[in-house]
Amino acid sequence: MNEVRMPAVVIPLDGSEASSKALGAAEAISRIMGAALHIVHVTDRRIPESQIAKRLHIEELDLEKYALHQLQGEVVESILELSSSLDAKMIVMSGQGETNNPEHLAGRTALSLMQHTSIPIMVIRSGMKRHPDKGWKPMKMLVPLDGSPIAACVMNQVFSLAEIMGTDIDILHIAMLGKKPPMDIGTLTGPRYLDYPQYDWPAWVDEFLNRFYAYLKPEAKMRLFYREGDPAAVTLEFAYENEEDIIALSWRGQLKEKMAGTVKGILRKTELPVLLIRI
User: Fold this and answer.
1) What is the pTM of this model?
2) Domain containing 172: what range?
3) Does 129 map to a domain?
4) What CATH number does the domain containing 112 carry?
5) Tens digit of pLDDT for each residue in 41-90?
Protein backbone atom coordinates (compact mmCIF):
# COMPACT_ATOMS: atom_id res chain seq x y z
CA MET A 1 0.00 0.00 0.00
CA ASN A 2 1.34 3.40 -0.99
CA GLU A 3 0.51 6.35 1.23
CA VAL A 4 0.20 9.64 -0.63
CA ARG A 5 -0.55 12.71 1.42
CA MET A 6 -1.94 15.04 -1.25
CA PRO A 7 -4.63 15.14 -2.42
CA ALA A 8 -6.66 12.88 -0.15
CA VAL A 9 -10.14 11.41 0.13
CA VAL A 10 -11.16 9.85 3.46
CA ILE A 11 -13.65 7.03 4.06
CA PRO A 12 -14.50 5.82 7.58
CA LEU A 13 -15.33 2.09 7.80
CA ASP A 14 -16.48 0.27 10.91
CA GLY A 15 -16.55 -3.22 9.40
CA SER A 16 -20.31 -3.33 8.91
CA GLU A 17 -22.04 -4.16 5.65
CA ALA A 18 -23.83 -0.80 5.81
CA SER A 19 -20.65 1.28 6.07
CA SER A 20 -19.13 -0.51 3.07
CA LYS A 21 -21.97 0.78 0.86
CA ALA A 22 -19.92 3.95 0.36
CA LEU A 23 -16.76 2.16 -0.73
CA GLY A 24 -17.58 2.20 -4.46
CA ALA A 25 -18.24 5.94 -4.44
CA ALA A 26 -15.07 6.62 -2.45
CA GLU A 27 -12.99 4.54 -4.85
CA ALA A 28 -14.52 6.26 -7.87
CA ILE A 29 -14.10 9.78 -6.44
CA SER A 30 -10.48 9.05 -5.51
CA ARG A 31 -9.72 7.88 -9.03
CA ILE A 32 -11.48 10.85 -10.62
CA MET A 33 -9.66 13.34 -8.37
CA GLY A 34 -6.33 11.60 -8.75
CA ALA A 35 -6.30 11.32 -4.97
CA ALA A 36 -5.18 8.73 -2.46
CA LEU A 37 -7.99 7.00 -0.62
CA HIS A 38 -7.43 6.96 3.13
CA ILE A 39 -9.45 4.27 4.89
CA VAL A 40 -9.87 4.95 8.60
CA HIS A 41 -11.03 2.40 11.14
CA VAL A 42 -11.34 3.49 14.76
CA THR A 43 -11.22 0.55 17.14
CA ASP A 44 -10.49 -0.34 20.74
CA ARG A 45 -8.55 -3.40 19.67
CA ARG A 46 -6.14 -3.36 16.74
CA ILE A 47 -6.98 -5.92 14.04
CA PRO A 48 -4.08 -7.94 12.57
CA GLU A 49 -3.14 -6.92 9.01
CA SER A 50 -3.93 -10.46 7.82
CA GLN A 51 -7.57 -9.96 8.89
CA ILE A 52 -8.25 -6.25 8.33
CA ALA A 53 -9.09 -6.43 4.61
CA LYS A 54 -11.80 -9.02 5.15
CA ARG A 55 -13.06 -7.27 8.26
CA LEU A 56 -13.56 -3.97 6.38
CA HIS A 57 -14.76 -5.56 3.10
CA ILE A 58 -11.87 -4.10 1.10
CA GLU A 59 -10.44 -7.32 -0.34
CA GLU A 60 -11.32 -6.24 -3.88
CA LEU A 61 -10.19 -2.62 -3.56
CA ASP A 62 -8.62 -1.71 -6.91
CA LEU A 63 -6.54 1.39 -6.25
CA GLU A 64 -2.81 2.01 -6.48
CA LYS A 65 -2.86 4.85 -4.00
CA TYR A 66 -4.56 4.06 -0.74
CA ALA A 67 -3.65 3.89 2.92
CA LEU A 68 -5.23 2.13 5.87
CA HIS A 69 -5.31 3.82 9.27
CA GLN A 70 -6.27 1.95 12.42
CA LEU A 71 -6.83 4.50 15.14
CA GLN A 72 -7.80 4.38 18.79
CA GLY A 73 -9.83 7.00 20.60
CA GLU A 74 -13.14 8.77 20.20
CA VAL A 75 -14.48 7.87 16.75
CA VAL A 76 -15.60 11.22 15.35
CA GLU A 77 -12.69 13.14 16.83
CA SER A 78 -10.20 10.63 15.39
CA ILE A 79 -11.73 10.82 11.91
CA LEU A 80 -11.79 14.61 11.96
CA GLU A 81 -8.19 14.87 13.16
CA LEU A 82 -6.94 12.51 10.46
CA SER A 83 -8.94 14.27 7.74
CA SER A 84 -7.62 17.65 8.85
CA SER A 85 -4.01 16.43 9.00
CA LEU A 86 -4.33 15.12 5.44
CA ASP A 87 -6.02 18.30 4.23
CA ALA A 88 -8.62 15.99 2.72
CA LYS A 89 -10.59 17.20 -0.27
CA MET A 90 -13.61 15.15 0.73
CA ILE A 91 -14.96 12.64 3.24
CA VAL A 92 -17.08 9.90 1.68
CA MET A 93 -19.16 7.73 3.97
CA SER A 94 -22.33 5.72 4.35
CA GLY A 95 -25.11 7.29 6.33
CA GLN A 96 -25.34 4.12 8.42
CA GLY A 97 -22.89 1.82 10.16
CA GLU A 98 -22.98 -0.95 12.76
CA THR A 99 -26.21 0.36 14.28
CA ASN A 100 -27.92 0.45 10.88
CA ASN A 101 -31.55 1.50 11.28
CA PRO A 102 -33.43 2.54 8.10
CA GLU A 103 -35.94 4.46 10.23
CA HIS A 104 -33.23 6.87 11.39
CA LEU A 105 -31.95 9.77 9.29
CA ALA A 106 -28.39 8.46 9.70
CA GLY A 107 -26.18 6.77 12.25
CA ARG A 108 -24.65 8.59 15.22
CA THR A 109 -21.16 8.80 13.69
CA ALA A 110 -22.42 10.08 10.34
CA LEU A 111 -24.65 12.69 11.98
CA SER A 112 -21.84 13.96 14.18
CA LEU A 113 -19.37 14.15 11.29
CA MET A 114 -21.89 15.96 9.13
CA GLN A 115 -22.38 18.62 11.80
CA HIS A 116 -18.77 19.16 12.78
CA THR A 117 -16.57 18.82 9.71
CA SER A 118 -15.67 21.81 7.55
CA ILE A 119 -14.55 19.38 4.83
CA PRO A 120 -17.13 18.57 2.12
CA ILE A 121 -18.72 15.26 3.04
CA MET A 122 -20.44 12.95 0.57
CA VAL A 123 -23.12 10.86 2.25
CA ILE A 124 -24.30 7.62 0.64
CA ARG A 125 -27.70 6.49 1.92
CA SER A 126 -27.30 2.80 2.75
CA GLY A 127 -30.87 2.10 1.65
CA MET A 128 -30.37 3.32 -1.93
CA LYS A 129 -31.56 0.88 -4.58
CA ARG A 130 -28.26 1.16 -6.41
CA HIS A 131 -25.00 2.32 -4.86
CA PRO A 132 -22.17 3.86 -6.90
CA ASP A 133 -19.46 1.38 -7.81
CA LYS A 134 -15.79 1.94 -8.58
CA GLY A 135 -16.64 2.68 -12.22
CA TRP A 136 -19.06 5.49 -11.32
CA LYS A 137 -18.50 8.64 -13.39
CA PRO A 138 -20.74 11.51 -12.23
CA MET A 139 -21.50 13.92 -15.05
CA LYS A 140 -23.98 16.35 -13.49
CA MET A 141 -24.20 17.98 -10.06
CA LEU A 142 -27.49 19.49 -8.88
CA VAL A 143 -27.21 22.48 -6.56
CA PRO A 144 -30.51 23.67 -5.02
CA LEU A 145 -30.34 27.30 -3.88
CA ASP A 146 -32.74 29.78 -2.32
CA GLY A 147 -30.86 32.89 -3.44
CA SER A 148 -29.56 33.80 0.02
CA PRO A 149 -26.01 35.12 0.58
CA ILE A 150 -25.50 32.15 2.92
CA ALA A 151 -25.91 29.78 -0.02
CA ALA A 152 -23.54 31.89 -2.11
CA CYS A 153 -20.79 31.44 0.47
CA VAL A 154 -20.15 27.84 -0.58
CA MET A 155 -20.36 28.26 -4.35
CA ASN A 156 -16.61 28.62 -4.66
CA GLN A 157 -16.21 25.15 -3.13
CA VAL A 158 -19.00 23.74 -5.30
CA PHE A 159 -17.41 25.01 -8.49
CA SER A 160 -13.95 23.87 -7.41
CA LEU A 161 -15.17 20.32 -6.71
CA ALA A 162 -17.17 20.27 -9.93
CA GLU A 163 -14.03 21.24 -11.83
CA ILE A 164 -11.96 18.52 -10.16
CA MET A 165 -14.63 15.87 -10.80
CA GLY A 166 -15.41 17.09 -14.31
CA THR A 167 -19.13 17.57 -13.66
CA ASP A 168 -21.48 20.12 -15.14
CA ILE A 169 -23.66 22.09 -12.72
CA ASP A 170 -27.42 22.49 -12.65
CA ILE A 171 -28.49 25.33 -10.35
CA LEU A 172 -32.06 24.93 -9.12
CA HIS A 173 -33.62 27.98 -7.50
CA ILE A 174 -36.62 26.92 -5.42
CA ALA A 175 -39.33 29.27 -4.24
CA MET A 176 -41.49 28.05 -1.35
CA LEU A 177 -45.07 29.07 -1.97
CA GLY A 178 -46.87 30.53 1.02
CA LYS A 179 -43.68 30.96 3.03
CA LYS A 180 -41.52 33.96 3.66
CA PRO A 181 -38.25 34.07 1.67
CA PRO A 182 -34.90 33.97 3.51
CA MET A 183 -34.48 37.14 5.57
CA ASP A 184 -30.68 37.44 5.22
CA ILE A 185 -29.51 40.81 3.94
CA GLY A 186 -28.84 40.59 0.22
CA THR A 187 -31.21 37.70 -0.47
CA LEU A 188 -32.22 37.45 -4.12
CA THR A 189 -35.81 36.25 -4.13
CA GLY A 190 -37.40 34.61 -7.15
CA PRO A 191 -39.22 36.48 -9.93
CA ARG A 192 -42.89 37.28 -9.40
CA TYR A 193 -44.19 36.63 -12.90
CA LEU A 194 -42.96 33.25 -14.11
CA ASP A 195 -46.08 32.90 -16.24
CA TYR A 196 -44.90 35.94 -18.18
CA PRO A 197 -41.17 35.39 -18.83
CA GLN A 198 -40.87 38.67 -20.72
CA TYR A 199 -41.23 40.45 -17.38
CA ASP A 200 -39.10 39.50 -14.37
CA TRP A 201 -37.35 36.30 -15.48
CA PRO A 202 -34.58 37.69 -17.78
CA ALA A 203 -33.56 40.37 -15.28
CA TRP A 204 -33.67 37.88 -12.41
CA VAL A 205 -31.45 35.43 -14.29
CA ASP A 206 -28.90 38.16 -15.05
CA GLU A 207 -28.72 39.17 -11.38
CA PHE A 208 -28.55 35.56 -10.22
CA LEU A 209 -25.70 34.74 -12.59
CA ASN A 210 -23.83 37.90 -11.62
CA ARG A 211 -23.85 36.70 -7.99
CA PHE A 212 -23.14 33.02 -8.46
CA TYR A 213 -21.43 32.63 -11.82
CA ALA A 214 -18.34 34.60 -10.81
CA TYR A 215 -16.81 31.50 -9.22
CA LEU A 216 -17.37 29.23 -12.23
CA LYS A 217 -14.39 28.14 -14.31
CA PRO A 218 -14.74 28.87 -18.05
CA GLU A 219 -14.61 25.19 -19.03
CA ALA A 220 -17.47 24.15 -16.74
CA LYS A 221 -21.05 24.25 -17.94
CA MET A 222 -23.87 25.59 -15.80
CA ARG A 223 -27.61 25.68 -16.35
CA LEU A 224 -30.16 27.56 -14.29
CA PHE A 225 -33.66 26.33 -13.44
CA TYR A 226 -36.52 27.65 -11.34
CA ARG A 227 -39.17 25.63 -9.51
CA GLU A 228 -41.73 26.18 -6.76
CA GLY A 229 -42.72 23.95 -3.87
CA ASP A 230 -41.25 22.02 -0.98
CA PRO A 231 -37.44 22.19 -1.45
CA ALA A 232 -36.70 18.56 -0.59
CA ALA A 233 -39.51 17.13 -2.71
CA VAL A 234 -38.79 19.44 -5.64
CA THR A 235 -35.07 18.67 -5.51
CA LEU A 236 -35.60 14.91 -5.51
CA GLU A 237 -38.14 15.09 -8.32
CA PHE A 238 -35.94 17.35 -10.43
CA ALA A 239 -32.89 15.14 -9.83
CA TYR A 240 -34.79 12.09 -11.04
CA GLU A 241 -36.29 13.77 -14.09
CA ASN A 242 -32.99 15.30 -15.20
CA GLU A 243 -30.78 12.28 -14.45
CA GLU A 244 -28.53 14.10 -12.01
CA ASP A 245 -25.61 12.22 -10.44
CA ILE A 246 -24.93 14.21 -7.25
CA ILE A 247 -26.96 16.58 -5.10
CA ALA A 248 -24.81 19.27 -3.48
CA LEU A 249 -26.28 21.09 -0.49
CA SER A 250 -25.03 24.05 1.50
CA TRP A 251 -26.15 24.14 5.13
CA ARG A 252 -25.37 25.54 8.56
CA GLY A 253 -24.50 22.22 10.19
CA GLN A 254 -27.49 22.20 12.53
CA LEU A 255 -29.92 19.28 12.75
CA LYS A 256 -32.04 20.51 15.63
CA GLU A 257 -35.83 20.41 15.43
CA LYS A 258 -37.24 22.77 12.76
CA MET A 259 -33.79 23.21 11.23
CA ALA A 260 -32.24 21.78 8.05
CA GLY A 261 -35.58 20.54 6.76
CA THR A 262 -34.31 20.32 3.19
CA VAL A 263 -31.19 18.38 4.16
CA LYS A 264 -33.20 15.96 6.30
CA GLY A 265 -35.86 15.46 3.64
CA ILE A 266 -33.31 14.69 0.94
CA LEU A 267 -31.16 12.40 3.07
CA ARG A 268 -34.19 10.30 4.01
CA LYS A 269 -35.23 9.49 0.45
CA THR A 270 -32.42 10.26 -1.98
CA GLU A 271 -31.24 7.72 -4.54
CA LEU A 272 -28.16 9.84 -5.22
CA PRO A 273 -25.02 10.68 -3.26
CA VAL A 274 -25.47 13.90 -1.29
CA LEU A 275 -22.53 16.28 -1.02
CA LEU A 276 -22.87 18.43 2.11
CA ILE A 277 -20.88 21.63 2.35
CA ARG A 278 -21.11 23.28 5.75
CA ILE A 279 -21.10 27.06 5.97
Assistant:
1) 0.85
2) 140-278
3) no
4) 3.40.50.620
5) 998 888 888 899 899 999 888 888 899 999 999 999 999 999 999 999 99
